[in-house]
Specification:
436 residues; alpha+beta; seven-stranded antiparallel beta sheet; three-stranded mixed beta sheet; 9 helices; 21 strands; 21% strand; globular
């Protein structure tokens, strides 16, 4: 996969080091680093080092394990989305058209995908395919569309009156996600982003971004991170930290303490598996999404470990000038049962669902697509999104999903894949016997 990650990105190190041999220089996706102007970003990385962990200049390079700068798909102050990187340039070429409509199902005739049925306004019509139909509708909607088209668990489809074209029990199964919690601390010093949580400061930040594309509005403000192993015997990281110099939730709610900071933490390889199924045969009905979170003892054990590791990091000398007291989980919660209660109440999705159209061998009954993304049992139909991952990726999902599109493009065009790389990632020399 490394050659495709390199092909898709233009990496801007910003003069902060990194691992250029592992990075791309002329791809459509811009990858940058925030300025890390707040001293808390550096204190968090230093605290990780003081706790005995590695430091890495580039977790997307040879060495993922350790604490260091976080990266973001931001360019010239704007989120550099897949639309900015790929779709908008394609629209200028004249052979790409965007149709705004509801996709209802793939039309399949004699075992071959020939088009897509859509509803546009009040009219239902079929867009015919000249060569192939490619689904890139997400790990939630791609399996839904396959099932509406007659591809999926035969019994489930029959229950909703859908003719079974290919009985593939893996469609909609194998749903995976990353859960995380926020470990929050109050700050001794008034240096956090809370000082900007007022109308005047928000207006200034907005104006600065509007006219210069710079300032706090040009970053997602997650500018330091960490990847560690949860125990000895694991060869590569299975715990991820996002650090934010503010104590706040994704929904904008914050604790009453005011100035604070937080680390988002969670295990990256949960054994729990969920599913996406049909609510009905109506394409306008939402699918039934069951993540089946925290369904194994391992999930609970790993989350408790994550919380205890995070507390240990915040107790290091580098954080001492900033730590006032723990906000959550709260200094009174220490036992397994107490931490489980906190996890039960506060764990939430980090938004990388995947796995519901799993890639595998054609003779694997649980596989949905083959190694080139072709739906098994139907001709001229592919899936090209995060639903094809057999197992959730080791970190955030945006870049791996875009990489899938890059590689599928070669398969669709009939090109030979890029030659595999022989680079070897860094592995802790004592991983068999040491957690750090």
């Amino acid at each position: 996969m490394l050659p495709y990650f390199k092909r898709m990105e233009t990496w801007h190190d910003g003069g902060h080091g990194g691992d250029p041999d592992w990075r791309g220089t002329d791809g459509p996706l811009h990858v940058t680093r925030g300025p890390r102007a707040n001293p808390l970003y550096h204190a968090f990385v230093e605290a990780g080092q003081q706790a005995g962990y590695e430091v890495t200049d580039d977790y997307n390079g040879e060495k993922q394990e350790g604490f260091g700068p976080f990266e973001q798909t931001v360019w010239q102050g704007r989120r550099w989305s897949a639309a900015n990187a790929y779709l908008r340039p394609a629209l200028k070429r004249g052979n790409c058209t965007v149709t705004r409509a509801l996709a209802r199902r793939v039309v399949i005739e004699d075992g071959r995908a020939v088009g897509v049925e859509i509803t546009r306004g009040r009219r239902t019509e079929v867009i015919r395919a000249e060569r192939e139909v490619i689904l890139a509708a997400s790990s939630l909607n791609s399996p839904k569309l396959l099932m509406l088209s007659g591809i999926g668990p035969g019994k489930h489809l029959a229950e909703h009156g859908i003719e079974v074209i290919a009985d593939r029990p893996g469609v909609g199964a194998n749903l995976q996600d990353h859960l995380e919690v926020y470990v929050q601390y109050a700050s001794k010093q008034p240096i956090t982003l809370f000082k900007h949580w007022n109308l005047v400061s928000k207006t200034v930040i907005g104006a600065q971004w509007l006219f210069t594309r710079q300032g706090l509005g040009a970053s997602n403000n997650f500018e330091s991170c960490g990847f560690i192993r949860s125990r000895a015997g694991i060869s590569y990281p299975d715990v991820q930290f996002h650090f934010l110099p503010m104590a706040i939730r994704y929904d904008g709610k914050m604790p009453a303490e005011g100035h604070g900071f937080q680390a988002h933490v969670g295990p990256m390889r949960s054994p729990s598996r969920g599913s996406v199924t049909l609510r009905s045969g109506d394409p306008e009905a939402f699918p039934v999404i069951r993540f089946n979170y925290m369904s194994t003892d391992q999930d609970w054990e790993e989350f408790r470990t994550c919380l205890r590791f995070t507390r240990e990091i915040f107790e290091q000398p580098a954080m001492a000038p900033f730590v006032k007291h723990e906000i959550q989980p709260g200094p009174a919660l220490h036992s397994d049962d107490e931490l489980d209660g906190f996890i039960r109440e506060h764990a939430e999705s980090a938004y990388p669902p995947c796995g519901t159209c799993r890639m595998g061998r054609a003779d694997d009954p649980k596989a949905v697509v083959d190694p080139q993304g072709r739906v098994i049992g139907v001709e001229r139909l592919r899936v090209a999104d995060s639903s094809v991952f057999p197992r959730i990726t080791n970190g955030n999902l945006n870049a791996p999903t875009i990489m899938v599109g890059e590689k599928m493009a070669d398969h669709i065009l009939g090109r030979d894949p890029l030659p595999p790389a022989n680079d070897r990632p860094w592995v802790h020399p004592a991983w068999k016997v040491a957690q750090r």
